[in-house]
Amino acid sequence: MFLASEVASLRLFVQLCISTVYCILWSVFSKVRPWTAGVGCLQEKGSCSGETITPVNRKQHQKKDVQPATTPTSVNYHFTRKCNYKCGFCFHTAKTSFVLPLEEAKRGLKLLKESGMEKINFSGGEPFLHEKGDFLGKLVQYCKQDLQLPSVSIVSNGSMIKEKWFQKYGEYLDILAISCDSFEEETNQLIGRAQGRKSHLGNLYKVRNWCQQYKVAFKINSVINTFNVDEDMTEHITQLSPVRWKVFQCLLIDGENAGEDALRQAERFVISEQQFQEFLDRHTSVSCLVPESNEKMRDSYLILDEYMRFLDCREGRKDPSRSILDVGVTEAIRFSGFDEKMFLKRGGKYVWSKADMRLEW
């Protein structure tokens, strides 16, 4: 059993290495033969998305409920799955350590901009973990400086951020969201939003001050679950004064935090609709609160995984499209399961450029 596991791991590692090298070579080749860009990755032997294209999975793509193409106004790019925290309800777990080469990631971002993207949100995993945040910083700078996107944002747990990152890249970032589920250290430890004995709340306040100093809009994300559902966070949120406080109901995703093959088992974190509503009722005085129930959240996000594949959550799991690097944005987004009406209903489009927020720094 041990030998078989080692062989399987080695085979996966070799496949990822081959896929990465292939994409790099094709990126170089496409600059010489621009009219063939994007074709090579569609060959039967493999693709930049890390999957082998066979008659079987081609039929699976064809059988999907294909939607009309939509404009990717706001996109969430989870370029890494690796994380230094172990949140028990995490719904984008470290199933692979793969990260696209920088130039390939930039190529995909340019494709998205050309297709109408206005806002990009970088997430993970923990996005500051890869190359100590320098990879992330280069993407942020590229999106704001080269692509001229109206809004560039990040979601982070805050533990890996250093002041020198703000000094180098802060001017290119519109919004930084820090995930914080409780203002009690013990509760964060129970949830898994911690690393050793380091204070998650200490990092939160430190990053909030840096955002103020380097003129980055500060946001807080909280997942409401069985461990924090009875907590009153009003005083702390008021003191931190984020531009938005996103409050999510704990969501189960098969293969991520539920099911036999999942790295997390989040059933013990799940709360009812009534419990979630009671939490919201307790915080009605917080004007920046933006609630998102399971119904609002599940299909109203355009999510790109580490291979730049749109993830369809309509069946309660994350079914990937083909990579936009292989087939382009218009084709891939048809398999995203994106509910644009719900996106607008939940307030997905708002004043998201710090230049338009008129904040007092």
UniProtKB/TrEMBL annotation:
SUPFAM superfamilies: Radical SAM enzymes (SSF102114)
Location in or out of the cell: Endoplasmic reticulum membrane
Cofactor(s) annotated in UniProt: [4Fe-4S] cluster
InterPro entries: Aldolase_TIM, Elp3/MiaA/NifB-like_rSAM, RSAD2, RSAD2/Viperin_antiviral, rSAM, rSAM_sf
Single GO MF annotation: catalytic activity
Family of this protein: Belongs to the radical SAM superfamily. RSAD2 family.
The protein's name: S-adenosylmethionine-dependent nucleotide dehydratase RSAD2
Native source organism of the sequence: Myripristis murdjan
Organism classification: Eukaryota, Metazoa, Chordata, Craniata, Vertebrata
Name of the coding gene: RSAD2
